[in-house]
Amino acid sequence: MNQDQEPKQPNGPEGNSEQSSLVSKLQSLGQTNVPQMEGSSIHCLTIVGQIEGHVQLPPNNKTTKYEHLIPQLVAIEQNPKIEGLLIILNTVGGDVEAGLAISEMIASLSKPSVSLVLGGGHSIGVPIAVSANYSFIAETATMTIHPVRLTGLVIGVPQTFEYLDKMQERVINFVTSHSGITEEKFKELMFSKGNLTRDIGTNVIGKDAVSDGLINEVGGVGQAIAKLNEMMEQNRLKKTNDGLEVIQ
What we know:
Layout: H1 12-29, E1 42-52, E2 63-65, H2 66-78, E3 84-94, H3 96-107, E4 113-121, H4 125-130, E5 134-137, E6 142-145, H5 157-177, H6 183-190, E7 202-205, H7 206-211, E8 217-218, H8 221-247
Parallel strand pairs: 1-2, 1-3, 3-4, 4-5, 5-8
Antiparallel strand pairs: 6-7
Organism: Fictibacillus terranigra
Region (Disordered): 1-24
Keywords: Hydrolase, Protease
């Protein structure tokens, strides 16, 4: 065979099987594999646009589908080559239950994780940002904190209100237990009047998010990766020490 000639794509059952496998991965994960930075043990997970939950959003919306992220997080936990997770956030928020599901998955990982809010980490993006072991926010980035909202027709107002109230408590409990902000301060920001036009809630910018205890530090990609590398090294040393203790 001529060396310059490109190999032909496999035809027949074998080729069809390979194509169907790729299609299956695209449908379940949104991509064919779990991407990893070349030559690095860090995986970068991006959460952008609107977080799509049980209802499919219009095709012109920039979305992050939770059914794509959850299998990726499972793969990250199982992959021994991945030692740390970097989460890049620029989201307007979205489905509350989907956002909480992603947050719980990140918080329960055994591997070190660092989040970085760039542009915005609004609404249900707040729990996702604080779900990592350590969080950063860009100096110009913002985070919108507001009560849980519902759009569309409501049937059974008292029952719906009770459901939303309990969901809101879940968000508050998660954020306060995974960050340095107090429940009183978070509720104050959530129910503040006049901060957002014709609405209640607060827009928190960079340094304010840190001073309120919501985010750990102001910084960018360099600081986030440096912190993650530091945490990964500590994790390696802990595993080594644990192994030596078992041998002794």
